[in-house]
Fold this protein.
Amino acid sequence: MSRLDSFIRRLEAQRACLDLAAHLVRELDGDVLELGLGNGRTYDHLRQLFPDRKIYVCERRLAPHPNCIPPAEFLLLGDMRDTLQVACELLGGRVALAHLDPATGEVAASRALAAELAPLILALLCPGGMLVSEPAIACDELSPVALPERVAPGRYNLYRYVNCRSSA
Amino acid sequence: MSRLDSFIRRLEAQRACLDLAAHLVRELDGDVLELGLGNGRTYDHLRQLFPDRKIYVCERRLAPHPNCIPPAEFLLLGDMRDTLQVACELLGGRVALAHLDPATGEVAASRALAAELAPLILALLCPGGMLVSEPAIACDELSPVALPERVAPGRYNLYRYVNCRSSA
């Protein structure tokens, strides 16, 4: 398998997971949160999946395709470890779907960042909200959801936020 | 169709065209030429398709994945308008398959560059050699080859070098 093969496979898995997550939150009120804009390809996909929802975007440094620049009022610029704390006031408990793709380019760095961000993301999700993520995140409040057909385990990850406190 | 959709479609078309071109040159002697290394994903794919051929690479500025750095003796660093002229002494008439993906990020700029590079590339191809390219190139010596199934016309391009002089 070449790097071209594995890149295509990852993008197909990413798209299939976003599509399924969008389906699973269709009856849930709430906003959408893109954690890492990059060139804006998945943001553009989210815009098409959610034409009627607010889509907030966290990004350290804007460098998207010119057609994929989020409106300023939905943009949280800066290190996510800082902006997600600020976002809590704005979005706490109101996000129906979040997508995390830190794209650090290094597996270990992405995992470490995801683990650090997880509690901040949880504070934003509404009960039953979905987190679509690569890398995987181990966390009691995130219940793994069966992946779409043709997506092998671990290639991308899909979680439902289970609010332990409210169900206790 | 989102930009994620169209990106996946382009990569799938690129891979299908490279695979088909590799099949079509299987009985042709000659080297392989990657015009534009980028992050090295298609270079890695070419390495797997052609484990026994020399793969030369033209690139202005090296920035590939660490596993995809070509050996120094196969690397032609600099502006392709210059390096392809130098390459003519080394490779003239000996390239069985060339892949052009200038990835300038702008359609018009890519087309203009491809048109400018076309005569330089032709000088390197052996008769019957294949050029896989995005963008399209209009040139009498390049005969369009039927695309793989599931690749729509124009999404990627496949040409066979027809040496008019030798067939005259």
In short: Residues 132 and 158 of chain A are 5 Å apart (CA to CA). The radius of gyration of chain A is 15 Å. Residues 3-24 of chain A form the longest helix (22 residues).
